[in-house]
Hints:
The complex is a heterotrimer of chains A (510), B (346) and C (302).
Chain A: E1 5-16, E2 19-30, E3 34-38, H1 45-52, E4 60-65, E5 68-69, H2 76-82, E6 84-87, H3 99-103, E7 110-111, E8 114-115, H4 117-130, H5 146-159, E9 164-168, H6 176-191, E10 195-199, H7 203-209, E11 212-217, E12 220-226, H8 232-240, E13 258-267, E14 271-279, E15 283-288, H9 294-302, E16 309-314, E17 317-318, H10 324-330, E18 332-335, H11 339-343, H12 350-355, H13 359-362, H14 371-385, H15 401-413, E19 419-423, H16 431-446, E20 450-454, H17 458-464, E21 467-472, E22 475-481, H18 487-494
Parallel strand pairs in A: 3-10, 3-11, 6-9, 9-10, 15-20, 15-21, 18-19, 19-20
Antiparallel strand pairs in A: 1-2, 1-4, 4-5, 7-8, 11-12, 13-14, 13-16, 16-17, 21-22
Chain B: H1 9-15, H2 19-39, H3 46-71, H4 79-95, H5 100-123, H6 129-147, H7 161-169, E1 171-172, E2 175-176, H8 177-195, H9 197-207, H10 209-214, H11 219-245, H12 256-266, H13 278-297, H14 302-334
Helix pairs in contact in B: 2-13, 3-8, 3-11, 3-12, 3-13, 4-5, 4-6, 4-11, 4-12, 5-6, 5-11, 7-11, 8-9, 9-11, 12-13, 12-14
Chain C: H1 2-24, E1 28-33, H2 40-56, E2 59-64, H3 71-83, E3 88-91, H4 100-108, E4 112-116, E5 126-129, H5 132-149, E6 154-161, H6 167-179, E7 184-187, E8 191-192, H7 197-209, E9 214-217, H8 220-233, E10 238-242, H9 246-253, E11 259-263, H10 265-280, E12 289-291, E13 294-298
Parallel strand pairs in C: 1-2, 1-3, 3-4, 4-5, 5-12, 6-7, 6-8, 6-9, 9-10, 10-11
Antiparallel strand pairs in C: 11-13
Helix pairs in contact in C: 2-10, 5-6, 7-8, 8-9
Amino acid sequence: MSGPYIVEMHNITKTFPGVVALDSVDFRLKAGQVMALLGENGAGKSTLVKILSGVYSRDSGSIRIFGKDIEGNLTPREAQQMGVAIIHQELNMCSHLTVAQNIFLGRELRKGSLLDNRTMERKTQTILDSLGIDLDPNTLVGDLAVSKQQMVEIAKALEANAKILIMDEPTSALTSVEITQLFSLIRGLKQQGVGIIYISHRLDELQYIVDAVTIMRDGRFIVEQQFSDITMSQIIGHMVGHEIKEKYPRVQVEKGKAVLTVTGLSAAPNVHDVSLTVHEGEILGIAGLMGAGRTETTRAIFGADPKQSGTIEILGHEAKIKRPRDAIKAGLVLAPEDRKKDGLCTKLSVRENIALPNLDKLVNSFGVVNRKKEREMVDQVIKDLQVRLASPEMNASSLSGGNQQKVVVGKWLARDSKVVIFDEPTRGIDVAAKVEIFQLMNKLKEQGIAVLFISSEMTEVLGFADRIIVMCDGRITGTLMQGEATQEKILELATRFEDKLNGNKGIETL
Amino acid sequence: MKESMNKSSFGRVLSIRGMAQVFTVTIGLIILCIVFGIMNPAFFSARNVANLLRQIAPILLIGIGQSYVLITGNIDLSIGSVVGMSTMISATMMTKGTNPWLAVFFTIFTCLLVGLSNGLLVSFAKLPPFIATLGTMTIARGIAQIANNNYNTDSIGEAAQGFRNFFYYGKTLGFYNTIWIAIVLWVIFNFILTRTRSGRHIYAIGSNVEAARLSGVSIVSTTTKAYLVSSFVSSIVGLVTTATSGMGTMDAGNGYELYAVAASVIGGVSTLGGQGLLFGTVIGASIWGVLQNGLQFAGAPVAIRNIVIGVIVVVSVLLDVIVRSGKASKLRLSSHRQVNTVTVGE
Amino acid sequence: MKKSVVVLLVLVLATALFAQGAKEAAGMKIYLITMDQMDQHWVNVDKGAQKAVSELGGITYKWLAPDVKDDAKQIECINNAVAGGANAILLAANGPNAVTAALKEAQEAGVTIVYVDSAANFPAVQTLATDNTAAGATAGKELLNALKGSGVNAGTIGIISVNSATASTVAREAGFRKAFEGTGFTLLETQYCDGDAARSKDMSANFITQGVVGLFGANEGSTVGVGNAIAEAGRAVIGVGFDKSDMILSLIKSGHLLATMAQNPDVMGYEGIKSAYKALKGEKVSPDYYDTGVSVLTKADL
């Protein structure tokens, strides 16, 4: 189904002060082709596409777009006019404006000097229909779910006649149903001859949509191949530079006594009568669709959200948890879903982030922080978790996703936590860092700390958890042991919605 | 299924973002008027209504300017000083014999320069708007003081009677000219805000400046336009002040920027940007004017008046914040539903 | 290159200042410190002072004031004067208590203190001021007589003042209210306009709508507003006010204001310098309180 080459980049080199971001990189894209651009964080993918879209200028190398040689530097405007568009990972929509207004932002159509709203609405409806997106052009973008916002972004790019679409982590915030929708939309685009550069860490999805892969590592081009001609472990091997034998390093630890027992937890609006237990030496995975209430459950346990009923017992003693402070004191900690927003103070240094919940251990009776103790604590955490950074004084936001996650968790490890809850710990993190996070969880497990983790990647839950509970609609619908769990069983439990007509509730509590 | 077609027309109006708060404050305004009228029937006399409308007009004008700037996500603290600068420059020129209309033209021009500076300082030099306009506020006040060598001016004289009538004392079709000026300017600026590209861009950069930038909107140009509007209306209010007093006072306009924020916020303009209807600013300015006027009629001591106004402003901002966080939780709930999330605006 | 130019400029400036200082060392240094430098009132105090300075000779004279009426800023001025080597200061205190600490330090540095217009709660050689309370009463009497003269013996009266803190206007209002005690007139709640003539006009117009028969403005800005409102209303409301300015005089001429209490700031400055001079020469100064009074300006006087 692919056509001629629409993008040909050859020998692209780009340096920033002190860093060679790209070193003689080649990249090609055909019309109607989905080309996955793979590589660990820092491999240079984003620099490469920014050069293509005119945000950066190349130091050397040639670029040809639709057969036309690009002399000199490409401005973002020119790139746009040539048909290049990026759908960013962080959506860029004006939430106070409608779908139609966002789609035409910056290119508003006018009748004379007045806005021609009617034509813009009409054209918006046309493009939405052609993409099979069921939306009213007059909906306020701020009222839309993230997945719908993403579709609006795609519609916007296409309305502006994009023929080269760069999608950065398009599926990370979507449910599996929404991903299916997105993929069928992409297939439709392929038919129309649009070329798509697909950047993603979710390697398991590639098989459903990708035609070819280009792999980069450390700013260099490694290989370009048809997807059908390469295996997953080869892909990972190229990305990492060595073979990763085990994607999900499990360790066997004897199961001990119950560490965390939750009974009858209910928290409006989305958690109904949840009960679960986690034992020493056990990793509990929580699976389910987005919106099943998993995050809400863990937040209620942690005290971040108010609960209407339920008791929490840690090591046999009841813990009265009304707010996070109570949970932390009882030894129960949470690494939240949105690490940048809820897990880190992005304007503060790594050191300050690690010290923040541990200040009670670092201050003297006047409240003055003991610098030496702080430094020791921070160094220990960095060492234990192998956080890669230039110095602890760096801004937390400048770390890569994996290292950020380590800091988020690391700050809890400095205090004797008994229960650690991870919410989507590996989202947006590259393969090698993922393994390190899993190894961290294993270490906790070996120390007798109860570990819960929420993941929307079914393979991850299947591969790594000792026991899996599945939630749907705010209830636990089933529990599966490691050996007996399959993707089908999990999916079945995850979609067991409350049958309102028959009053049949598919609940199975532990 | 296009759900918006199913709403009644009242529902459709309400669903325009921000209309619900405008509706609420309009009810509040009506209640206030009734209360003040009961406390002192002179409140409803023809004379007072005419005066009241004329007292509201300047607040509405500066409210328009501040609303424009607030919607872009910025703030303009120099409004009061520009009023002072405008009244001093115009009055000084007129006392020295300059033709009043020439003085008007020159005054507006110099005040627009302040707006231009504000726009460039904020969008080009990337100074935080609070700091930038604090700076121009001081500079403009200084200009107001040196305009007539550090004195208040003399009387602008008989030659300026036409000017005084145009801006303040004269009536057209039974209403004071000041009100007409405010209404006409409101219509024009509302039109620009809702029906032109520039207006759309003003909302966009307040909503998400990064998204706007990536979509090719000129941040510098749009921000500057908003500040120019603000300085323009401030200069008009300064001219009205000169016409009212018949002289220029260096202290004129002190504190007006905050009244302008109050009028905007009460009317539903969000201090976080991207949202607000100029129609709301009309109600906000009216509430402000009614309070000042009515509380005087009620014989309330000034301290009470300040407290009342302060409480109303705080409540309005609280309303803004509460409604926004209400929206956030609505979004979480609906994110997993496969139904189109077309919710009615607040 | 730039740096050395700056250094050179600073040196030149410093030398110039030094030279000035050397010249001044001989005579008497008297500083005038007022509440601000904008009001024509203070300008006239300065004028009167300068007149005395040129008559007496041998005095080095300087006028300092903050840009706005502010206690802290005035304290700075006092400190600057002392540091600048003042032998005496003529002070119009912004607030009676705020500056006392600074004055104590000044006195300990050997500075003679004379109050003009507004005194502070601290002993000084002399206070030359308008007895604001008496002046306010005078204004009240003028209004009362005029009302009685036109056959009005009862009704409401509106008062526009500056704010609730400035001692002079507070005293004037108090005097005014006292003059109406025991009469058939009711004085309404005072409205504050911060000296803004336009706001005063709006407030006066509201009073007129409420049916007042008389209005009082406690300072220049307030009075201008009162006059403009009466001019517009065309009703038989009688207005009196304070201070003398071009606008107020024209409002009196056109009959929209009955009278204004013109202070005699020039007398304050003139006599103030003379008293300071006497004190520096070691002579006794009396009386302790010199009422510079007000002149009642009506249409007849213009």
